[in-house]
Amino acid sequence: MFSIKNTGERLKISEDQLFQRFVKSGGNIESTGLGLSLVQRIVQYYNFSIQYRNIDPWHIITIGF
Q1: pLDDT value at position 29?
Q2: Which DSSP string corresponds to the chain?
Q3: Domain map of the chain by residue range?
């Protein structure tokens, strides 16, 4: 298992959309980008798992292998 965590603003999108490409929230001009979508595809290719959790103030991404 491998986890990365950092602090930051609350998500402006739902957790279900976090791994989708270029998701925007409302009228916001910024998007989620491409990074987590690519990570998810690589993780799935190798039959690993990926999970997002929020435990204030932490955002935690965990990859299981």
Answers
A1: 67
A2: -EEEEEE-PPPSS-GGGTTSTT-B-TT-S-B--SHHHHHHHHHHHTT-EEEEEEETTEEEEEEE-
A3: 2-64
